[in-house]
Amino acid sequence: MMLPTPHFMRKLSVAVVIGASLLASSCATAPATGQAAIAAMPAAEKAKFEQDRKAILAMAGDYYVTFDFRETVALTPGYELKKPKVSGADEIVRLVEDRGDFISLQHILVMKMGGEPIVTKHWRQDWQYQPDSVLTFVGGNAWEKRPVSATERAGKWSQNVYQVEDSPRYGAVGAWTHDNGVSQWTPPAEMRPLPRRDQTTRKDYDAVLAVNRHTITPFGWVQEEENSKLVLRGDHHVLVREIGVNSYKRVDPLPKDGDDYWNATKDFWSYIRKDWDALEARGPFGLTVQGEPEPLYIPILTLADDVHAGKIKTDEAVAEAKKVIAQFTTANIGTLPERIAKATNPGQAYSAPASR
């Protein structure tokens, strides 16, 4: 297995500082609508559908992003609110795929350190119109598909967010509205893993119950989060509430380093996505490591860096990445208490099964 380079570790530390907590989710099934169904939509439904698509596609571009997270209400006796966490970064958002009723957008951080470009693959968001199912987080680095009824999905979109190495993070289903000239998407609260800003520093809670609103603005777009930090040990309860505001302000075109990276590695990442898709199709699955899954994502990101640098061919990197994914994923997810125990006791860990 290839070890992370010092250069990559420096990149990773920068990403952590600037709020890589927005990493990336779960995914929906294959398109539930299809081109024929889109063409057959009544005029009013088609107009709304196209308005929704315009809002989603408007999130692509070049941005300066501010990440602002503030705990607001302590809900456990003796808990003291932590200091706000505010950071910023340059980021590009690029269209990966547009099939009409399915849109995929990739986020890439573009920075400078000592005059040297630093590029880090960030989170990905996939949008599916009227999905049959959504892959949801069930605690302790595990996910399963949840069926979405015809009533729940009617006229709505799922947003599924993925980690830096394209493993799932969280998903939700909600409707885009365009009232009073404002386009926004607001789903009900769904559970998600700890953000990296807390995953690497805290062990006093186990998951986040989050409402994740996206709003298109005159200057770009904003992601607002209403987060309840959940303790899933013993008597489940909310530790504290938090508000997060991630503002994407459109800027002049950023240096081409981000696009150079994406153009060099997008074939590699397309194969990685297919491997995760195959895992999801088999049923509930989880990671063989709890907490921050560095053993999973660092080798895969390093392989992508080596593809970008011309040190390894894409097919060879894909073969190595598949081995990493196989090593750190399992269909034997156990119970939630077992997973939480392993997350809160570093000495415990999953034993990777012979096959997944």
Notes on the structure:
The protein has 356 residues and is of the alpha+beta class. It has a domain at 6-253. It has helices at residues 6-17, 34-39, 43-57, 150-153, 196-199, 257-281, 294-309, 314-327, 336-344; strands spanning 61-74, 85-98, 102-113, 116-129, 133-137, 142-147, 157-162, 168-177, 184-186, 190-192, 207-217, 220-231, 237-250, 285-287, 329-330. The strands form two sheets. A ten-stranded antiparallel β-barrel has the order 1-2-3-4-7-8-9-11-12-13. Strands 5-6-14-15 form a four-stranded antiparallel beta sheet. A hairpin with a 3-residue loop joins strand 2 (85-98) and strand 3 (102-113). Helix 7 (294-309) runs antiparallel to helix 8 (314-327). The longest helix has 25 residues, at 257-281. It is globular and about 55 Å long.
Please sum up the structure shown.
This protein is α+β, with helices and mostly antiparallel strands. It has helices spanning 6-17, 34-39, 43-57, 150-153, 196-199, 257-281, 294-309, 314-327, 336-344; strands spanning 61-74, 85-98, 102-113, 116-129, 133-137, 142-147, 157-162, 168-177, 184-186, 190-192, 207-217, 220-231, 237-250, 285-287, 329-330.
- How much helix, percentage-wise, in residues? 25-40%
Structural class by helix and strand composition: alpha+beta
The major pleated sheet works out as: 10 strands, antiparallel, barrel
Strand order of the largest sheet: 1-2-3-4-7-8-9-11-12-13
Low-confidence stretches: 1-31, 347-356
| DSSP, total strands | 15
**Gyration radius from CA atoms, angstroms:** 20 Å
Order of helices and strands: HHHEEEEEEHEEEEHEEEHEHHEH
Strand content: 35-45%
Shape: globular
